[in-house]
UniProtKB/TrEMBL annotation:
<dbReference type="InterPro" id="IPR036640">
    <property type="entry name" value="ABC1_TM_sf"/>
</dbReference>
<dbReference type="InterPro" id="IPR027417">
    <property type="entry name" value="P-loop_NTPase"/>
</dbReference>
<feature type="signal peptide">
    <location>
        <begin position="1"/>
        <end position="23"/>
    </location>
</feature>
<dbReference type="GO" id="GO:0016020">
    <property type="term" value="C:membrane"/>
</dbReference>
<feature type="compositionally biased region" description="Acidic residues">
    <location>
        <begin position="28"/>
        <end position="41"/>
    </location>
</feature>
<keyword id="KW-1133">Transmembrane helix</keyword>
<dbReference type="InterPro" id="IPR003439">
    <property type="entry name" value="ABC_transporter-like_ATP-bd"/>
</dbReference>
<feature type="region of interest" description="Disordered">
    <location>
        <begin position="575"/>
        <end position="601"/>
    </location>
</feature>
<keyword id="KW-0812">Transmembrane</keyword>
<dbReference type="InterPro" id="IPR017871">
    <property type="entry name" value="ABC_transporter-like_CS"/>
</dbReference>
<dbReference type="InterPro" id="IPR003593">
    <property type="entry name" value="AAA+_ATPase"/>
</dbReference>
<keyword id="KW-0067">ATP-binding</keyword>
<dbReference type="GO" id="GO:0005524">
    <property type="term" value="F:ATP binding"/>
</dbReference>
<feature type="region of interest" description="Disordered">
    <location>
        <begin position="22"/>
        <end position="41"/>
    </location>
</feature>
<dbReference type="Pfam" id="PF00005">
    <property type="entry name" value="ABC_tran"/>
</dbReference>
<dbReference type="GO" id="GO:0042626">
    <property type="term" value="F:ATPase-coupled transmembrane transporter activity"/>
</dbReference>
<feature type="domain" description="ABC transporter">
    <location>
        <begin position="369"/>
        <end position="596"/>
    </location>
</feature>
Length: 601
């Protein structure tokens, strides 16, 4: 019986909230029932969340909708536009339905909260009437005939019940409104984070900076350029987006509070006639002023006459009901300023120019670099530039195995990142094949928290036959056999639980398992013992990945001997490095004759 009653109350009080997923805590003895297929486990884990998020709660649809509103508003921006307004108006246009719905619910809650003071007046009038005129037959015929709202004392219990119900309804409505507006704020944060990170992924990444550029509004202004490093962009996606989230959830009070006052004035006028207008004006001027003026007026009226208790208590209760909303209106005014501040910071990032993208060429070539092409990392300042220059044309055909040789610090990694489209094109032409995708295995293995299988498949479709071939070609089979759950063993972020060699082989296996047309291995073989590195090279790079274009950065001679094409750094580059006018302005030059083709041994 109690369970059914509890279900009814739960539906009454929480019907406005979305469903929540059921969480199941598994005991240790149930560990044996753990599925051996990670794909099935992920499906079972995701089934509890199926249907939990609608389109208006997902980041991608929200981000695309906000991006559309942002681009549509670009044609309406004038020269004298205040920075931040464009993004603010785009947000309001994108989220207007949720804001209006939450505001209407809040407005109804405010009006519902104003009903109990009116009922209180009726109760006090009925109580006074029953005290002065016990005979109900004469109560409405003589001195109380001018009171049209006299209620019989027998109806008092009904009025008390109505007061309780309206007060409860007001609480439910205000919570529903706040929940809805909090959801709108979360939508704003998700959409802004999507736009910020989407633009950040378009820019080349480095350990120093993402971009150093001015927005179109500031291009002709004097002063230092705005530096956008990774920390600054992350600050936008976390701090500024959270600031806007908090502001969006409470900004509706700017229009709901005045609207509720306009609707509450007639209710108050029925109590104290036209004098209620003065009270509303005083209330709007501010609570400190209202307190001092109200005390003075109270003392003067008390000295002149004794007020009607029904009018006094009901009016006072109505003012108390409206008092919290006045505080929210003051907070909303402050939040509006914070909203513009956050929008101004994010808008500066969204209006920066995007870096030059690598163009695509025909399917015959994997990479085609024109002579005198210069690439650069996005630098923190003009005095800390790194340039990658090509003094000759370089063309790499599809399916070739290219060895990039050179001493440590000679720029091998920069060339690998340039092929991965992670450097800015300054001059010249650096073109990739049509539809080419590159998979980069960097010197420092990138391992996320999860199973070894998830770190290799990396959200690609699981092909069991192909997967185990990659495991075998990267010499991981023996290592997995020694692990408690084989490839379903969970490892920590950064490769915690794996040795450096194991993490490096997982890194290479992910690049080979991917469907990328270009595989980039940035000096990963040096961390492996000779026999293991030869196994990975022969069975992985020259075996499973033989039909793809492969670039291997290495300083090992045996790798260069087995490559179709080897690229060697300029012999005099290191000698002339410290003789340049700016020691920090380093250039990697590939001179004529630096590209030597050899048959595959």
């Amino acid at each position: 019986m109690w369970s059914h009653t509890r279900w009814v109350f739960s539906m009454m009080l929480f019907s406005w909230a979305p469903p929540t997923p059921d969480t199941i805590k598994k005991d240790e003895e149930d560990e044996a029932d753990y599925t051996d297929t990670e794909e099935e486990y992920q499906k079972e884990d995701a089934s509890s969340f199926k249907g939990m998020l609608s389109d208006w709660q997902k980041a991608e649809p929200l981000g695309l909708q906000l991006s559309q509103c942002w681009h549509e508003s670009s044609g309406h921006s004038g020269k004298a536009q205040v920075r931040g307004r464009r993004l603010a108006f785009s947000l309001l246009q994108c989220l207007r339905s949720g804001l209006v719905l939450g505001g209407l619910i809040e407005l109804v809650a405010m009006l519902t909260a104003a009903i109990p003071p009116i009922i209180l007046r009726w109760l006090l009038v009925a109580l006074a009437d029953s005290t002065t005129n016990p005979d109900p037959a004469t109560s409405s015929s003589t001195q109380d005939a001018h009171k049209p709202h006299i209620i019989r004392i027998s109806h008092s219990y009904t009025l008390v019940a109505i007061m309780a119900v309206t007060q409860m309804a007001a609480g439910i409505l205000i919570n529903a409104s706040r929940y809805r507006l909090e959801g709108v704020g979360a939508q704003a944060k998700a959409a802004l984070t999507y736009m910020i990170m989407d633009k950040a992924f378009l820019a080349p990444s480095s350990s120093s900076a993402i971009n150093v550029i001015r927005s179109p509004h500031d291009r002709n202004k004097d002063g230092p350029e705005q530096t956008w490093n990774s920390g600054t962009v992350f600050n936008l996606a976390s701090v500024e987006a959270s600031r806007i989230e908090d502001c969006i959830s409470g900004i509706n009070a700017i229009w709901t509070v005045p609207a509720s006052f306009l609707l509450a004035i007639p209710m108050l006028a029925t109590n104290v006639d036209a004098s209620s207008l003065g009270g509303m004006v005083i209330l709007l001027l501010g609570l400190p002023v209202f307190t001092r003026v109200a005390l003075r007026i109270w003392n003067e009226q008390k000295a002149l006459s004794v007020p009607d208790p029904a009018k006094a208590f009901s009016s006072f209760a109505l003012f108390l009901a409206l008092k919290p909303h006045v505080n929210r209106a003051a907070q909303a005014a402050v939040q509006l300023q914070d909203l513009l501040v956050g929008c101004r910071a994010i808008e500066m990032w969204l209006e920066t120019e995007e870096p030059h993208q690598m163009r695509t060429i025909s399917a015959d070539w994997a990479v085609d670099v024109a002579q005198n092409t210069i690439l650069s990392w996005p630098a923190r300042s003009s005095a800390d530039d790194f340039h990658l220059s090509f003094n000759t044309q370089a063309q790499i055909m599809n399916g070739e195995l290219v060895a990039i040789c050179g001493r440590p610090g000679s720029g091998k990694s920069s060339l690998m990142h340039a092929i991965a489209s992670q450097m800015c094109l300054e001059t010249g032409s650096f073109e990739l094949g049509i539809g080419s995708k590159a998979a980069l295995a960097s010197q420092t293995p990138w391992i996320r928290q999860g199973t070894i299988r998830s770190n290799i498949t990396f959200d690609h479709k699981f092909d069991e036959a192909r997967y185990w071939k990659v495991i075998s070609s990267c010499a991981l089979m023996d290592d997995l056999e020694r692990m408690p759950r084989r490839d379903l063993t969970v490892v920590g972020a950064g490769g915690q639980g794996l040795s450096s060699g194991q993490a490096q082989r997982v890194n290479i296996a992910r690049a080979i398992y991917s469907d990328a047309d270009i595989v980039l291995v940035d000096d990963c073989l040096r961390n492996l013992d000779p026999s293991t590195s030869k196994t990975v090279f022969e069975y992985g790079l020259c075996g499973l990945a033989k039909d793809r274009t492969r670039f291997v950065a290495t300083n090992q001679a045996w790798v260069a001997r087995q490559s179709n094409l080897k690229t060697i750094s300029h012999p005099s580059w290191e000698k002339n490095l410290w003789k340049t006018p700016q020691p920090n302005n380093r250039k990697l030059s590939l001179p004529p004759g630096g590209l030597q083709r050899k048959p595959l041994l």
